[in-house]
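Sequence only, no structure available. Ideas?
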Amino acid sequence: MFINAGRSHHRGAKVLRIIGMAFMGVVFAAGFALVFGLLVMWLWNWLMPALFGLGEITYWQAFGVLLLAKIFFGGFGSHKKEPSDHWIDRKDVGDRKQFRQFWKDEGEAKYKEYIRRKQEEKETSS
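Reply:
I predicted one. Tokens follow.
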């Protein structure tokens, strides 16, 4: 009976930690939106009236501009991109290791042979 009580307590702490992390995520996202909305409002009100003769905007209008920019330029949903050199799948790492081993064992000699053949072809054609 006491063993299960310990597990229940551990599980409860884990659930509370997840709820706390979710709450902090919401607070962080709201703060992020607030800061970027204020930044867009400040930049707009500083630049656009002087440069283009446009009127100043409120915070909510700036927030709307951010949403429009997201819709027009960012889209919605997941964007599948090719992995960059910095983020490589584990399978690719294995392939690269195999390639390095191939290059050590056979590749360099075959490459040198290829270059020699190309030079011979070039000399015979001239």
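The chain has two domains: 1-78, 81-126.
Hope that gets you unstuck.
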